[in-house]
Amino acid sequence: MNYSGWKPEQLEQELKKTIIGQDRYIHDLATCLWLHNQRCEHFLRTGELISIPKYNMLVIGKSGMGKTSTIEAACGDGNSRLRLQTDNLLFIAVGAFDGLDEIISKRVQPKRIGFSTQSETISFEKNLLQQVTPSDLAAYGVSQQFLGRLPIITVMNELEVADYEKILLDSAISPVLQLNNLMKQEQNAEITISQEAAKKLAQKVKATTLGARALQGEVMSLLKDTLYSLQEDTKHAGYCIDYDEDFLIRALPGERKPLCGKKKVSFRLTEEERKCIKQVDLDFIWEEGDSIRTYAEDMFEPFETQDFGENPSQGLVDIYDYVTIRKAQFFMAAVITEMILASKFEGKKKNMMTLLNILRLFYPQDVTENMHPLEKWRDDFIERSHIKNPRELNRIREIAWEVARKHGMYLYETSLDDWECIS
């Protein structure tokens, strides 16, 4: 299901057409999907990745209750495999290793002679993992071959209430601050937490054995119903998690106005455009750097003085400066080169749909050593585009997308005229 642009209540009603008797689950899943889509829309609009937190969801229920069926109805299903050359990859393995402390305790316990105070005993038990050795991990069941490939072993400290409180209020990974960042930019709404609520939430999480990951779950448990209706509720500036004998959500005063001057980039085709552009083949592009650059420039030429703005008489030069247009041309050349590489290594077709799909997601990476000549051309085009930041990337991507879309329709219409002449 393509749920881009849908509101949580629309998602909920659509899923209820398929899944029966799971209203609470569907309600929460709709909110979860909407939050994920907000992250995607933010990337498409700004080119900026919000890497944390991902609003993942744990679903608990007996077999046959509709857990998997609901996910399939919402997202579809599929499987894929990827083979990687791992010689130059760094692996960082993490785990809780429940029960490892008992193995360490048996090894170090004989060394403790005499009586110990209660505080000394507590301190000893808390710091057991700090004394771990490879032999302890081997006794736990980790293979020697695996341990041999992980020469560095480090142990994290146990978090205290003050640590959890500081994470909520100040840390870059605070689920409250991350959610506020996303909602502020996408919905012009603030999400905050009071000092007292942060303290009480920290105490609650400390009492569990889940660690800092429990913070996000607690925050979402408190906010999920508020987030469900947030898009429609413009009478409040935002919401604050507060505490007064119990947790509560307090509305922040002030009417929430829509973000001004912000154009969301959808990068979508109409059904008619999709039908036409699917038929546009690009096999004729020469697989050589100068030819690719020239073709990218030729794509822009018909729209330089007309047929690009809201007014048909407006062209690229009426809206953007020369430097911006030139950057977009080099970006387009890099995308075309990436399409040709995808046709060689991934078997993708060289047509306008492939080009548009790559353009929509293409993100310039740091230039690295490469083997294929076309990879060198692609990296050269990226460097020559001189895109400085995610916001500029988004603007350049938007220009390139509109040029490619219009160019695709132009090629389709031209091919029809040629066919009529031949007939």
As laid out across the biggest beta sheet, the strand order is 1-2-3
Estimated helix fraction? 40-55%
Q: Note the overall shape.
A: globular
Question: Structural class, please?
Answer: mainly alpha
Low-confidence stretches: 419-423
Radius of gyration: 28 Å
How many helices does DSSP assign? Answer: 18
Report the β-strand fraction as a percent range. Answer: under 5%
Summarize the main sheet: 3 strands, mixed
In total, the number of strands is 3
How are helices and strands ordered from N to C?
A: HHHHHHHHHEHHEEHHHHHHH
Distance between the termini: 42 Å
What do the pLDDT scores average to?
82
| Oligomeric status | single chain
Please give a structural write-up.
With 423 residues, this protein is mainly alpha-helical. 54% of the residues lie in helices and 4% in strands. It is built from 18 helices and 3 strands. It has helices at residues 8-16, 23-46, 67-75, 100-108, 118-126, 134-140, 144-148, 161-169, 175-187, 195-206, 213-230, 271-277, 289-300, 316-319, 322-345, 352-361, 373-385, 390-422, and strands at residues 190-193, 238-243, 247-252. Strands 1-2-3 form a 3-stranded mixed β-sheet. A hairpin with a 3-residue loop joins strand 2 (238-243) and strand 3 (247-252). Helix 8 crosses helix 10 (195-206) and helix 16 (352-361) packs antiparallel against helix 18. It is globular and about 80 Å long. The model is unreliable at 419-423 (pLDDT under 50).
